[in-house]
Amino acid sequence: MTDATDPLLHRFLDELGVTGARPAVETPPGGTLPSAFAVSDLAQASIGVAGAALSRLIAAGGGGQPAVTVDRDLASAWFAWTLRPDGWSVPDAWDLVAGDYAGNDGWIRLHTNAPHHRAAALAVLGAPGERVAVADAVARWSVGDLEADVVEAGGVAASLRPIAGWDTHPQGMAVAGEPLVHMERTSATSQLEAGDVDPTRPLAGLRVLDLTRVLAGPVATRLLAGWGAEVLRIDPPGWDEPGVVPEVTVGKRCARLDLTQDGARQRFLRLLESADVLVHGYRPGALEGLGLGADVRQAARSGLVDVSLDAYGWTGPWASRRGFDSLVQMSSGIAHAGMIAASSDRPVPLPVQALDHATGYLLAASALTGLTERRFDGRGSRWRTSLAAMARLLVDTGVAPSIEGDGIQPTDPAAGAPVEHTVWGDARRLPPPLEVDGAPLRWDLPAGPLGAVEPTWLDE
Question: What is the DSSP letter of 164?
Fold first, then answer.
C-alpha cells in the first residue's frame, strides 16, 4: 500500500480551511499496523494535523511557527493503549455479550457495554446475558431485521455490509455528500484575547467543557489538556466506562450533572459562560431536546468554539442513530473488506479503533483552529464531523488485497517515564507521539474516576 500520510495530512488541513503557509510537519517512516487499510498513515496524519493546528495558534499568539514531528510507531501505538499499569489491571473494555454474531443470512455486531444497550439487545433476542445463548438466538434472525429491531428498542447494533453496499445505502450516500469537517463562524466575544501565547504551555488559561464519552471526544480533550487547557468533563449520574476511563481522563477533572433537570442545566450554562471550547458527542437534536441547542449555547457564551461529532453523519435517515467505532466499521464496509483481505469467514475490523482516534485528533485540531481564528476577530465558530465521514476518508485511501503490516515498536514506556499516581495504582504512559518544538505535551493531573469533583472551574 502506498504511503498516504502526507496526502491525508494535507486533506485534513484543507478540511480545516487552512490556506497559505502551513506549518512544517515531519512524518518520518516507521512500522505499519497490520490492516487492509492505511491505519498507521491515518494515525500519523491525524495526530500531525493537531500539531499543525497548535503551531498556527502559537504563531497567531506572537510566537514563531514551531515545527511539528510525529513519530509513526508511537502514533500507531497511541491509537491503541497508552497506559501501562504497575501491579493492577484496567477492566476489560468490552462487555461479555458484546461482539460479532452470525445470523441466518450474515453477520451482526452487538454493542452492549452500556447496561441499557445490553438490556435492549437481550430483550429483543429474548435471551439471557450469556454468550452462547445470545449466539443461538441471533442465529435464528435475519441480521437486517435484528439490527432494525435492536435500534428501535434503544440498543446499538450494526450488520456487516460490503463497501459497495454502503455506497448505495441511503445513509452511505448521505455521508458521501457531507464534508469531513463542517464549520461556520458565529458571534464575536466582547473581549479579544490579549497578550502572547506562552509557547511552552500554549493552552494555559483556556477552559474546555467536555460533554463526550467513549472514545473520540475524550481523545480530543486529553490532547488539549496535555498543552495546559483546564478540561472539565461532565457525565450524567450513573454513567461509567471503567475500561477506558484510566486511558482518557488524564489531565482532566470529572464531574456529574443531570442535564434533564432544570437546576443542572442552569449550572451547566453558568460553566459555559466562561468556557472557551465546548466539545460534545450528542446525536443531532439531542442537546436541543435538553433545551441546550446551538442558539442557547451561543447566547450563553459569545465567541465559543463549539466542536461536535456523531457516529453516522449529520444528514440522512441514520443521522440520529446511536453508534460507535466498531459499529461504523461494520456498516461502512471496513470490517467486510478486512474479512476478504484476511481470507476469513468472519468480520475483520481494524487493528485499533482508528475511526475514534483519528476523529478525536481532528476534533482537537478543529478546536485549535477555532481558537486561532478567534484571536484575529473575536468570533466563535461551530465545527462538526462524524465517525462515518472518517470511515469514508479511510476507505477512499484504498484497500489492500491482503493484510499488510510489519509491526509497531516501541510498545512500552521509556525507562525514565514519570510515574502517574492514579487512584487505581501507579502507572506509566507511552511517550507522546507528537512534538511541537518548544511546546511539550505534559499532563498535570493523573487519570481519575468519573464524577470525582464538583462541576466548577478551578478558580471558582
Answer: H
How is residue 235 written as a grid cell?
A: 457525565
Task: Using CB atoms within 10 Å of the CB of residue 308, give its burial: 0 to 12 exposed, 13 to 18 middle, 19+ buried.
Answer: buried
Question: CA-to-CA distance for 235 and 212, rounded, in angstroms?
Answer: 8
Amino acid at 257: L
Would you state the cell numbers that stand for residue 286, as one nine-digit string? 439531542
User: What is the residue-level pLDDT of the chain in tens, covering all 460 positions?
Assistant: 458 899 999 999 999 999 888 999 999 999 999 999 999 999 999 999 999 999 999 999 988 899 999 999 999 999 999 999 999 999 999 999 999 999 999 999 999 999 999 999 999 999 999 999 999 999 999 999 999 999 999 999 999 999 999 999 999 999 999 999 999 999 887 666 667 889 999 999 999 999 999 999 999 999 999 999 999 999 999 999 999 999 999 999 999 999 999 999 999 999 999 999 999 999 999 999 999 999 999 999 999 999 999 999 999 999 999 999 999 999 999 999 999 999 999 999 999 999 999 999 999 999 999 999 999 999 999 999 999 999 999 999 999 999 988 877 666 776 678 899 999 999 999 999 999 999 999 999 999 999 999 999 998 8
Residue 188: exposure state from Cβ atoms within 10 A (0-12, 13-18, ≥19): middle
- Which runs of consecutive H residues, i.e. helices, occur in 378-427? 387-396
**Per-residue cell: 398:** 484504498
Where b means 16+ CB within 10 Å and e means fewer, 57-92 reads bbbbbebebbbbbbbbbbbbbbbbbbbeeeeeebee
Taking the C-alpha atoms of residue 410 and residue 404, their distance in angstroms, rounded to an integer, is: 19
Cis before 215? omega within 30 = yes
How many CB atoms lie under 10 A from the CB of residue 229?
27
Name the burial class of residue 249, with classes exposed (0-12), middle (13-18) and buried (19+) by CB atoms within 10 angstroms of its CB. buried
Angle, helices 5-15/39-60, rounded to nearest 10 degrees: 50
Give the DSSP letter of residue 91: P
Helices 354-377, 5-15: axis angle to 10 degrees equals 40
